[in-house]
Design brief:
disordered N terminus; 8-stranded mixed sheet; mainly beta; 231 residues
Length: 231
């Protein structure tokens, strides 16, 4: 098991592995573990909503507060506290589409805990963190918001959508939802399992930046793919 280290850069960021320069670095590949399989991925960062030096991110599910490992294909996350998970080489700019294939395991009584994609990330290691996020939850709805520092701004309230596949059968191991955020020709479109559920103007938005995962409290999630599909 690996205990995370803590850096102070205006605020706390919880990180592990080496924080490499983005220049010359390959994007993480879901089919090639970053380090050893079933170990904490190398080069990834985790920023918690409420940083704490007591939080342990590790590969032992029985003792880690957040279980985060390479699990080819992709990665497995079991929270713990809520936060964002990202690799600094995962950047997108201009026109692009990013996608995540997310497999939710039995949420128990925590159907209202959300998970999904973030994009446009910058200053993620400081008090001025900035990103947008597109989440779903097991109640069958989705949300779009923006975070600046410790504050959030609603872009689209929780909205029901039949495109969301919910976990409602205890005989099922997990359910998969594919989320996409697409910035094209001045608009930002949001798709769940191939169905467009929302589209907004990109005017005034700052969509360039790091993309990654946002996972709220006490969620058992496998990510079989996280990629940029086009620029």
């Amino acid at each position: 098991m690996m205990k995370v280290s803590i850096r102070f850069v205006g605020t706390l960021i919880i990180a592990f592995g080496l924080f490499h320069s983005v220049m010359g670095q390959d994007r993480p590949n879901a089919n090639q573990p970053q380090g050893e399989n079933l170990e904490v991925p190398e080069g990834w960062n985790v920023r918690l909503d409420r940083p704490s030096d007591e939080v342990v991110i590790g590969s032992d599910p029985d003792s880690a507060d957040i279980y985060f490992v390479n699990m080819t294909p992709g990665w497995h996350i079991t929270t713990g506290p809520a936060g964002i998970f990202y690799h600094p080489a995962n950047t997108a700019a201009g026109d692009f589409t990013i996608k995540a294939d997310l497999h939710l395991f039995d949420p128990g009584e925590r159907n209202r805990e959300a998970f999904g994609l973030f994009w446009g990330g910058r200053d993620l290691d400081s008090a001025d963190q900035f990103y947008y996020y597109f989440l779903i939850r097991n109640t069958g709805d989705f949300l779009i918001k923006k975070r600046v520092g410790d504050t959030t701004e609603m872009i689209k309230e929780w909205t029901p959508s039949e495109a969301v596949v919910v976990y409602d059968d205890p005989e099922t191991s997990s359910v998969m939802n594919a989320l996409e955020v697409s910035v094209q020709e001045g608009r930002v479109s949001f798709r769940i399992n191939g169905e467009e559920v929302s589209s907004i103007s990109a005017e005034g938005m700052q969509n360039d930046g790091i993309f990654g995962l946002r996972v709220n409290h006490s969620i058992n999630l496998h990510i079989s793919d996280l990629a940029i599909l086009s620029k």
